[in-house]
Structure formats: structure tokens, C-alpha cells
Amino acid sequence: MAYLDSPQIVSSRKEYADSFTLARYLATGGYEGLKKALSMFPEQVAAEVDAASLLGRGGAGFPAGRKWSMLRKSAVSYLVVNGDESEPATFKDHYLVERDPHQLVEGVIIAAYALQVNRAFIFLRGEFALGLERLTQAVNDAYEHGALGRKIFGSDFSLDIVVHPGAGAYICGEETGLIEALEGKRGFPRIKPPFFPAVTGLYGEPTVVNNVETMSNLPWIVLNGGAAFAALGAGRSTGTRLFALAGRVNNPGVYEIEMVKNTFRDIIYDPALGGGIIGDKAVKAIIPGGVSAPWFGPDQLDLPLGQDEVAAAGSMLGSGSIVVLDEDSCVVRATWRITKFFSRESCGQCTPCREGSGWLERMLYRLEHGGGRIEDLDLLLDVSDNIAPGLTWPPQQTTICVLGPSIPSSIHSAISMFRDDFVAHVDHGSCPHG
Amino acid sequence: MSHLRTELRQRAEEIVALYPTRRSAMLPLLHLAQEQDGYLTDEAMAEVAELTGTTPAEVRGTASFYDMFHLEPVGRYVVGVCTNIACLLRGGEELLEHASAVLGCAVGGTSDDGLFTLEETECLADCNIAPVVQVNHRYVRTTTPEAFDGLIEDLRAGRLDHDVPPHGTLIRVRRSGGLRADASEIATERASAREARAKREQ
Predict the structure, then answer these.
(1) Interface touch A334/B85, C-beta < 8 Å
(2) Per-residue model confidence as pLDDT tens digits over B23-32
(3) Could you tell me which of B189, B178, B175 has the C-alpha nearest to residue B20?
(4) Can you tell me the ipTM of this complex?
(5) Pairwise CB contact (< 8 Å): A150 & B189
(6) How far is B122 from chain A (nearest CA, A)?
(7) From CA A354, how far away is CA A343, in angstroms rounded?
């Protein structure tokens, strides 16, 4: 049975239909964390976040406190919030922005105070029209309430937040691509070094880039203390986390559960969570952490949902998404569609990614739709190897950013786990599932 | 003569003032231009160039990178159907095919009456209600062919006008004011940013 007794840190207002309004936010403890933070020294606030050992919730899982401590000292620095959530089957930030925008705003103000930054940008995915409207309203209300602008709540701290709409490009979720888009350009990722945002980020100034969910945890951490957050979960995976469960389950959705205390089986089968597989079919494969991650088979169902646990098993918790394929799902079709996504979203700067993704997509297309050849299987792996040499996990990188090396994950997983399915496609001349 | 109508021009200037550099306003201004015309006209892109201190070529070069910007006219309703992994596993491809048949246009095309443009989208981050359909970037949450038919009827009859504004209108909540943090602070900030940049570029 799943362990569901942990506090709801970022989804505590889920039962309220008006959870996105200032009135509801204030009636449920809103902006109390900020008031407490402003009564502390900025370093103390940062120390609490460090003590919480809050791992970034965007995908890479880097400790937020350490990220902050790496910010180069400079007269001007910026805080940028990454709300460009585009990793396939990830929909937790969408939920947070639409349902609890004030919690995000409060988290951003707390972070800006800890970092002593006076200008923050929230880059929100353009396709989130309602989220953009609710967040803009929340920012307007926060100014009105004295939580933003000059001398916040009578303190000496001033901050402006700008809500910046994206315009439809997966690559803007990569932090340096996001910064380019924020500077008004194509979202081309920058080469690192030298362009580590903490050193040379937005407008060439030191910049912290944090995920929406990471920010949304801050009001609770300040109010309850970093130690209380660190007491949840186990090992390096502290606190709770939003998991976005999708695919062939009865109840797909966003679930906040304590880190490590539950397994893939718990979240997929517990009646209060995924509720099992549609039609009681068997699990064929699980894609954890977004489509950039290697897959798991049913033998990994009892793996705990913790960052290190999943990493040790050869994949990643990544963006917190979990996609379930059942026994009737076509893995060749799934692999083709994922690869088509990467091919479409490759920014085009680096040859291995730009050319490799298209080549892989075309091969997978013919395997699925007719005309696939048995030697395509080796060729798929060979082309993949040119993008991420050795096909290791984590992958080797031949490109400016990690989009390219993410492409082989699903292909390598699918061929290793389900080679017979690919062979059946070749024998049948196209997809045997029809 | 401004191509953007007075109210939008004013909003555009407010947006430019929010950023340390004019060019940063590029994406929000392109959204505004689409709000007026439904797509990006040459005149609008020329005006965005003027507002952002860039050239029309730079504006087009930037706009063409992003899926949400249309350089050709589109229907009043841009219907996006997701077929990415979570939707693929729940009938996204079949729904897209159905949409194409109902609207009488290929994916990427516009219906004969000019009302609908159909797009196959990448993941729209609403996978708990899959397959996901958006109209003008509003989630309409119709997952079956029957519900899709009802949606199209409702759109044609104008019953969803409140929830689904014409294509291009993205954010109907206007920011209530400009930057409020201390102006001299910001000025100092900008000056030192410029100095730092100049030093680096030497």
C-alpha cells in the first residue's frame, strides 16, 4: 500500500476551487512565509533552503541551496524561474501555476530576498494561456498587497517580477536557451563553459535559474524550517514531490507524495493514486522522468521513487513524470513518436542532434509504417552512438546541450528490452498492432 | 503611422519598459502583434523591430523559430491536437485523424470557411485529460470524437466566445503597472550592467 501520510507541501490548496485567488491564499496562510523570511537575514533564509537539501524539481535534480551559493558576486544579478514545462508527459508546473500562482510568486520573492536580487523573471510556457492570465493576476495582486514592488511589507527589500510568455519551443526549457529567449532571440542553448548562468547568464550577469516547483516549496520551507523538510523522504531525496502519472493507468494525474517512501507499483496501482492499469492489463514498460530517460520493465516496479534509487537502477527521476505502457502498447510506435518529438524540437545548432534525430525518426517511421529492414536495428543504435558515444547512462555529450544525448534513451531502451517487437515489425512489414 | 492600434501600441510600450534591454520584449510583443492580426504581418514585424531596436529580418528570424508564431494567416480558431507519448497511448492519433476529417483540412491546413486551422502539437502538459486538445491555447478537454464534434459546433455557434478568444489573444489580464522597485536603483543597475558589458567586450 502506498504511503500517503506525508504533508501536502505544494498542493495543500487542491480542494479549493478558488485556490488561485489572493483571498483564498491569504485565508490559508499565504505570504506568511515571506513575512518570516523578511524578518531573517538573507543568509539565514538561504541556510534554511540549504538545510532542506531541496533538490531542483526541473529535471537535473541539482540542490537549490548549492546552486544559489554558486552565484557569482556582482552588482547586478537576476533570478529567472523556468516555467517552460515541455518535457513530454510532465504536467506538474502547469498544475502549480494554474492552481496556486500566489504560492509560486511568494516562493520567488523569498528566493529573490535570499539572493538579494531586485529583478526576477518568470518564464512561462506560451501554451499556458490560463496559467499566464492567473499568474499575471497574482503578480498584480501581490503588488497591490505590498508583497512586491518598493519596500516589501515595510522592509528594505524591493523586487519586481516580470511574467514572460514563451512561444512554443521545447528547447527553451534548457536554461541557457531560456535565457536567450528572454533576451528576445531564438532559443539556442549557449555553450558551457563559459556560459554557466551563475557566472554569465541573463544580459551577461550572474543568474539563478530555478524551476516552478522548486520555488513553490520555499514558503513551506521558510515557515516550517529546512530541517522539517529534510526529515521527509530519505537520503538525498528530501521532502515531497509532485509526480505526473500518465499513459495506460486508470487515474492519470498529479500526485504529491513523500520522496522514496513509495514505489512505482504504489503510484501506479494504489486506488488513491493511479488506480491500476486500464482493463487490468499488465505493465509492459515504464518511462520515468520524461522521454529523455531510459525505460524500466515490470521488474523495476518495486523501485522506490527517489532520485538516487532511480539513478542507481540506470535511469532518472528527471521531471517527475511517469508514463505507463501496457502489454498492448506498441513500443515501436512509442519510440518513433518520442524520436519525432526530438527531431521536431532540435534547435539545429549541432549536427549530431539535428541530422541524427531526423535520420532516426525516418528509420523508426518505416519500421512502424512499412519498409523497415532488419539491419535498421543496428543502424539505429549506431546513429544513436554518434549522438551519445557508448550509449551510457548518464549519456556522453557531443552537443551544446543535453537534448541531443537524450534522443537515444528511448531507442536504446526499446531495442534492448523489446528486440522481438522490432523484429516482428520487420517480419510483418509494418506494425502488427495495426 | 503605427500599425498596432493605439491600445496595443500603449501596451507594447509598457512591456518594453519592463526589461533592461528593448530586445527582451520580442516574444511578448510578437504575441501582441498576433493579438491584433491573428498572425504576424510584415507591417507588425516592422513595428516590433522598431520597438525592440532590431531589424525586421531579426524579428522574422526570431519569430520563425517558435511554433506559436504564424507567418501566414490562420483561422480564427487554431485547433491543436496532441499526439505525443501520453496522448498517443490514449488515442491522440485517432482524434487528430477525426479532427482532420471533420474540419475538412489536412494537418497544418485551414478549413474552407477559413474558421479553423488544424495542428498536430507536441505535449501540452495536461496529460491527465488525454488526448489533449487546445483551441487558441485554451484547454477544451474534449477527449472523444463525439466531444470534438460538439466542440466544433459550439465554436461555430459562438457559445465559447468567452473562454476562447480569437487566435492570437494570449493574455487578457493586463499588468497593472510598470516596475516599482526604486527607480534610481534600477538606473544604477543598468549603468553598472552596461559598464560590465563594455569591460567584457574590450
Answers:
(1) yes
(2) 999 999 999 9
(3) B189
(4) 0.96
(5) no
(6) 7
(7) 7
